[in-house]
Design goal:
With 235 residues, this protein is α/β, with parallel strands linked by helices. It has two domains: 62 residues, no CATH class; 162 residues, Vaccinia Virus protein VP39 (Rossmann fold, 3-Layer(aba) Sandwich). It is built from eight helices and seven strands, in the order H-H-H-H-E-H-E-H-E-E-H-E-H-E-E. Strands 3-2-1-4-5-7-6 form a seven-stranded mixed beta sheet, with helices on both faces. Helix 1 packs parallel to helix 3, helix 2 runs antiparallel to helix 5 and helix 2 runs antiparallel to helix 6. The longest helix has 21 residues. It is globular.
Length: 235
């Protein structure tokens, strides 16, 4: 991996800080540094393990880091709302230790970004490719992220315990919800990151999956459509 100059790193850091601010995220200096360090690890391992098709640092910054950052505020709002409902007696189980499963995480997107930005949330990144799960474990150790874990497994084998199951460009909504349903905790939801509004995929969802929100996402510096599809099992 080519060593980037201090000027390039400073420019990346400023771009990341500006994007975080535009997304309504009050990230600390340390969190910004850890995000950039993660991107450095992604670039380094990518040369050998092909974690992502992108190679250019500027594209990785916008298409991976900042794109994944757009999921932080929606996830935080959902967890806060569920916690408020639990305190008011409207949820079956109080949400004391929120757990997120990132399905088909690959190089850790958005899972690693979520773990960095939300230190009180436990994030597990599952992938069927062992080297990708190993990369997540390496990142968790190197960047000192005790709330991050890499898991080598098929998502169909992951049983329960997760309040939110998320994915980014993983599979169709029908396959995503079908395969990951056993991983959901009672009261848990799916949070799927998509590009354009997936009307056809929504129409093909199983009848026992309820879509309760489709949220448009604005990604700073990325001229592309993005949305978040929120779903839960039909009771």
């Amino acid at each position: 991996m080519a060593v980037e100059s201090g000027v390039e790193l400073a420019a990346q850091r400023q771009q990341l800080a500006d994007a975080a601010e535009a997304l309504g995220l009050a990230l600390t200096t340390q969190q910004l540094d850890v995000l950039l360090a993660y991107m450095g690890w992604l670039q380094k391992w990518n040369r050998v393990y092909n974690l992502t098709a992108l190679r250019d640092p500027s594209e990785m910054l916008t298409h991976h880091l900042i794109d994944s950052l757009s999921a932080v505020a929606p996830l935080r709002r959902h967890l806060a709302a569920r916690q408020a409902a639990a305190l008011a007696g409207g949820e079956p189980v109080p949400l004391t230790d929120p757990r997120v499963l990132d399905v088909g995480s690959g190089g850790g997107l958005p899972g690693v970004v979520l773990a960095i930005c939300l230190p009180d949330v436990s994030v597990t990144c599952v992938d069927t490719v062992n080297k990708k799960a190993a990369f997540i474990q390496q990142v968790a150790a190197a960047l000192r992220l005790p709330n991050l874990k890499g898991l080598h497994a098929r998502v169909e084998t992951v049983q329960g315990g997760f309040d939110v199951v998320t994915s980014r460009a993983f599979a169709s909504l029908r396959d995503f919800t079908t395969w990951s349903r056993p991983a959901l905790e009672p009261g848990g939801v799916w949070m799927a990151m998509k590009g354009k509004h997936p009307a056809q995929e929504l129409a093909e969802l199983s009848a026992d999956v309820s879509v309760f929100h489709v949220e448009q996402l604005q990604v700073p510096g990325l001229d592309a459509e993005r949305c978040m599809v929120w779903m839960r099992p039909q009771v």
